[in-house]
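Q: I'm building a small set of examples for a reading group on sequence design. Run inverse folding on the following structure and report the sequence directly after it, with nothing in between.
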C-alpha cells in the first residue's frame, strides 16, 4: 500500500510539473505572439509613414516637374521670339565705298582682299583675312564683327562690337555698332541687354524704335 501511495504521489507531482511546463510554454508563446504583433504593428506604421512621405515627395516632384516644364517652355518661347526678331531686323552692313577715301592711309592688299570678299558675301574668307592681319584699322572692325555674326561666332562678335561701342560716339560707325551689338545680343538671347543699349536711340531711327516696341 505504501508503495502504491508513493507511486500515486509521484504521478501527481509529475502531472503538476507537466502542467507547469505546459503553462510556461504557453506563456512564453503568448509573450512571443505579443512581441510579433507589436513588431508587425511597428512595421506597418513605418510603411504607412514611408508611404505618406513617398506620396508627398511624388507630389512635390510632380509640381516641380510641371514648374520646370512651364519655365522651360517660356524660355523656349522667348528664345524663339528673339530669334525671329533677329532674322527680321538683321541685314549685313553694306560696305561704305567712301570709307577708303576718308582714311589717312591707303589700305593694305590684305584688307582690300578682305573687303572684296565681304562685298561678295564671302564672309568666311573675309574673316580669315581679317584674322591673318597683325592689326585692322578701327574703321573696318565693324565689318569683321559682321563676318563673325555671319559665321555663327556670336560671342566673339559681341566682344568686338562692345569694344567699338565703348570707344564712344566720336568713332566711325558708332551708331551702327550699337545697332549690330543689340542684334547680336538678341541672337545670343539677351534681350535685356539689347533693350538697355537701344533705349537711348528711341525715336532717332525707325528700325530701332520698331525693335524696341517689339521687345517691350
Amino acid at each position: 500500500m505504501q508503495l502504491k501511495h508513493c507511486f500515486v504521489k509521484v504521478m501527481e507531482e509529475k502531472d503538476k510539473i507537466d502542467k507547469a511546463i505546459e503553462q510556461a510554454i504557453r506563456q512564453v508563446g503568448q509573450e512571443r505572439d505579443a512581441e510579433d504583433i507589436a513588431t508587425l504593428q511597428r512595421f506597418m506604421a513605418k510603411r504607412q509613414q514611408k508611404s505618406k512621405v513617398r506620396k508627398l515627395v511624388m507630389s512635390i516632384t510632380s509640381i516641380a516637374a510641371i514648374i520646370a516644364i512651364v519655365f522651360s517652355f517660356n524660355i523656349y518661347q522667348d528664345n524663339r521670339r528673339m530669334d525671329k526678331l533677329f532674322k527680321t531686323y538683321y541685314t549685313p552692313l553694306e560696305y561704305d565705298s567712301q570709307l577708303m577715301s576718308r582714311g589717312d592711309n591707303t589700305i593694305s592688299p590684305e584688307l582690300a582682299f578682305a573687303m572684296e570678299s565681304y562685298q561678295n558675301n564671302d564672309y568666311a574668307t573675309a574673316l580669315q583675312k581679317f584674322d591673318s592681319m597683325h592689326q585692322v584699322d578701327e574703321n573696318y572692325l565693324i565689318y569683321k564683327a559682321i563676318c563673325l555674326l555671319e559665321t555663327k561666332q556670336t560671342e566673339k562678335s559681341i566682344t568686338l562690337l562692345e569694344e567699338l561701342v565703348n570707344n564712344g560716339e566720336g568713332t566711325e560707325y558708332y551708331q551702327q555698332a550699337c545697332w549690330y551689338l543689340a542684334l547680336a545680343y538678341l541672337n545670343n538671347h539677351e534681350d535685356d541687354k539689347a533693350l538697355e543699349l537701344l533705349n537711348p536711340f528711341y525715336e532717332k531711327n525707325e528700325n530701332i524704335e520698331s525693335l524696341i516696341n517689339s521687345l517691350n
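The mean pLDDT is 81.
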